[in-house]
C-alpha cells in the first residue's frame, strides 16, 4: 500500500522467535522464519498491536526526531487532545501548548478544533444519506487500512472525510502563511502522535493524494522534554480553544457522542473487537445502526502504544478536563470545504489474494485447500504462521514447506517408527 511505507519495525537482535504477535495480527502480516519474526510490509496496517504484545520489545515505531524542526523557518505543532492528559496534576491546557513553543515550535494548532469541524461535516453527510449506512468513521487510519486490506465490501460505507490530524495540518499551514507571509514550503506542520498508524498516515495518506503534514513526533519522545517547561511560573501566551466535544475525540466514543441528532451509533475499540465488528458489518448484522466509530487502540487514542500514561487514568483526567472547558462550537456555514473531503477514492488493496490470473488464483486456492486438509488444524503457530490456513497459503506462495508443521513431522516420524517395528524392528 502506497509503496509499503511503515512506522512499525522489527529489532531482529531482540527477537527470540516467540509467537506472541503472529496470533494477534489482524492481517496475518507476521511470520517466524529462521528463528526470527518477519513483518510482511504489504500486509501491515501499522496498528501497533505487535508492539503492545511483544514481551521482548523487539517491535517499535519509528517516528521523526525533534531535530526535524530545523528544516523549517516556521514550525507548527499539531497537538492531539490526548497529549494534555499524559501529565499529572495538569488541568491547564495552555501550559502544555506554551511548553511546546518553548521546546522549539513557533505556533500550535489543536487537533480537537479540527475534530469539532469533522463532527459537523459528519452530521451533514449522515443527514443527506450520501454515504451508505451504517457509515464507518475514517478517523482511525489503522481501521481505514484494515478495511482496504481485509473488508473491501465495506469501502463504500467509509466516511469520505480526512482525519482530524490531517485537517488540522491544512488549517494550520494556511493560518501560518497568512500570519507570516512565508511561502508554504517554509512552514513545517509537525504532528504529535499517539500511535504508529498516525506516523504512517502523514507519510502515506489514505483518501488523499498528499498530506499537509511534514513529520510526526511520538508523544513518548516529546513527553519528557515538556515536563521541565511546564513550571506554571508565568502566563502562557497560547490559549486552548477546543471545546469539550473536540477533546472527547481522544477517547473511544468521543466522536460518536459529538454528533448531532445521531442516536443509533456503535462504538468499538481494540483491534480484535473492531475486527469482529467489521466481520458482522460485512454480514449485514447491524442494519439499524447509522454510525460506527472504531478505534484500533484499546480506549481510543488514549491507549496508543506511543503514550506513556495509563489509558484508564488518562480517561479520568480527560473527563475532568472536559467539565472545565466550554462546550460551544461555532456552526459550520455553507458547503463542506474541499479540504475536509478525500480527493482520491478509497480502493481495495488485494494483498491477501494469491495473485496471478483468475485461473491461476483458482488453481492455487485448490492447492491451498488440499494442503490445509493435510494439516492438523490446531492453529498452534509452532510452524511460524498464525494458522494452518496461513501455512497452507505460504506453501502455495513458495514461502514455506508443509514439513514446517511440527505436529505433522511428529506424526510422520511416528508412522515411520511403527512401520519399522512391523517390519522386524529398528535398523541395526
Detailed description of the structure:
The protein is of the alpha/beta class and 428 residues long. The strands form four sheets. It has a four-stranded parallel sheet, sandwiched between helices. The chain has a three-stranded parallel sheet with strand order 7-11-10, covered by helices on one side. It has two domains: 66-340, no CATH class; 353-428, Electron transport complex subunit B, putative Fe-S cluster (3-methyladenine DNA Glycosylase II, Chain A, domain 3, Orthogonal Bundle). The longest helix has 18 residues, at 111-128. The protein is built from 15 helices and eleven strands. The mean pLDDT is 91. 37% of the residues lie in helices and 11% in strands. β10, α11 (271-282) and β11 form a beta-alpha-beta unit. The termini are far apart.
Oligomeric state of the chains? single chain
Count of alpha/pi helices: 15
Q: What string gives the helices and strands in order?
A: EEEHEEHHEHEHHEHEHHHEHEHHHH
Termini separation = 58 Å
Strand fraction: 5-15%
Outline, from the CA principal axes? Answer: globular
Structural class: alpha/beta
What's the Cα radius of gyration? 24 Å
Percent in helix: 25-40%
Amino acid at each position: 500500500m502506497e509503496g509499503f511505507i511503515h512506522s512499525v519495525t522489527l529489532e531482529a537482535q531482540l527477537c527470540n522467535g516467540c509467537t506472541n504477535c503472529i496470533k494477534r495480527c489482524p492481517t496475518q502480516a507476521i511470520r517466524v522464519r529462521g528463528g526470527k519474526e518477519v513483518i510482511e510490509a504489504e500486509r501491515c496496517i501499522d496498528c501497533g498491536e505487535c508492539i503492545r504484545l511483544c514481551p521482548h520489545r523487539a517491535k517499535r515505531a519509528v517516528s521523526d526526531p525533534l531535530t526535524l524542526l530545523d528544516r523549517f523557518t516556521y514550525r507548527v505543532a499539531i497537538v492531539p487532545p490526548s497529549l494534555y492528559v499524559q501529565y499529572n496534576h495538569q488541568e491547564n491546557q495552555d501550559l502544555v501548548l506554551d511548553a511546546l513553543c518553548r521546546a522549539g515550535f513557533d505556533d500550535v494548532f489543536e487537533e480537537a478544533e479540527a475534530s469539532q469541524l469533522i463532527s459537523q461535516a459528519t452530521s451533514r453527510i449522515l443527514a443527506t444519506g450520501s454515504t451508505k449506512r451504517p457509515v464507518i468513521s475514517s478517523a482511525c487510519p489503522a481501521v481505514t487500512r484494515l478495511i482496504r486490506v481485509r473488508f473491501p465490501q465495506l469501502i463504500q460505507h467509509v466516511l469520505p472525510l480526512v482525519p482530524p490530524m490531517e485537517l488540522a495540518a491544512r488549517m494550520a499551514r494556511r493560518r501560518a502563511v497568512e500570519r507570516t507571509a512565508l511561502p508554504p514550503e517554509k512552514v513545517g506542520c509537525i504532528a504529535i502522535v499517539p500511535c504508529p498508524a498516525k506516523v504512517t498516515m502523514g507519510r502515506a495518506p489514505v483518501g488523499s493524494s498528499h498530506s499537509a503534514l511534514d513529520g510526526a513526533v511520538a508523544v513518548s519522545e516529546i513527553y519528557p522534554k515538556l515536563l521541565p517547561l511546564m513550571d506554571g511560573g508565568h502566563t502562557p501566551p497560547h490559549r486552548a480553544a477546543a471545546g469539550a466535544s473536540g477533546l472527547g475525540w481522544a477517547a473511544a466514543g468521543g466522536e460518536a457522542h459529538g454528533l448531532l441528532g445521531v442516536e443509533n451509533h456503535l462504538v468499538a475499540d481494540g483491534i480484535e473487537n473492531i475486527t469482529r465488528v467489521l466481520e458482522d458489518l460485512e454480514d449485514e448484522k447491524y442494519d439499524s445502526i447509522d454510525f460506527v466509530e472504531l478505534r484500533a487502540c484499546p480506549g481510543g487514542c488514549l491507549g496508543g502504544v506511543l503514550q506513556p500514561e495509563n489509558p484508564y487514568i488518562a480517561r479520568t483526567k480527560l473527563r475532568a478536563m472536559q467539565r472545565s472547558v466550554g462546550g460551544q462550537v461555532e456552526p459550520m456555514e455553507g458547503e463542506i470545504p474541499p479540504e475536509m473531503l478525500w480527493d482520491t477514492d478509497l480502493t481495495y488493496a488485494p494483498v491477501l489474494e494469491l495473485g496471478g490470473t483468475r485461473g491461476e488464483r483458482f488453481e492455487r486456492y485448490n492447492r491451498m485447500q488440499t494442503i490445509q486438509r493435510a494439516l492438523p488444524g490446531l492453529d498452534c503457530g509452532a510452524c511460524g504462521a498464525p494458522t494452518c490456513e496461513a501455512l497452507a497459503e505460504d506453501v502455495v506462495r513458495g514461502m514455506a514447506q508443509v514439513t514446517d508443521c511440527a505436529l505433522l513431522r511428529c506424526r510422520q516420524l511416528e508412522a515411520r517408527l511403527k512401520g519399522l517395528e512391523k517390519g522386524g524392528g529398528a535398523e541395526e
